[in-house]
Amino acid sequence: MDNVSLLKRTMNSFLILTLVALVTFFFPNWTFAILASSMVGVALYEFVNMVERKGVFVYKYFTVILGMLIPLMIYFQMGTEGYFTLEPFFIVITCLFVFVLQFTRRDSSEALVSVAVTMFGLLYIAWFFSFFIKIKFLPSGSLLVAFLVLVTKTGDVGAYLVG
Question: Looking at the whole model, is its pTM more than 0.85?
């Protein structure tokens, strides 16, 4: 284990945890939604780059922008009451749009793989991460979000140190 690498990771983690704590506890909810959307964008961009290095074609910027809209859409519907929510509708439209977008490519031999990887990234990263916003709106939601971040970060640190 490299001491410089450990120091870098510690400083980055401290800065990220400080930012998340400030936004979670002291700033309005819309800043939390913007932070969540930004983190989704970074995570999706990293995911898409990893997938492209494996040779799978993905509409990079489309996926990132659409993924960043999911947490924002969930934030804007959190104040509404009733049974009609945009979340399932948005996910179905996204699936259809990604599927239709593959017809624009000249080489469609890997179309199914591209659609599957794009949808996996959108659902696994963007949709699951947007549950942070839903948790934040629960009673004592800020504490629940802080607990979830703390448990996740502790697991990451333990995995890094133990191997």
Answer: no
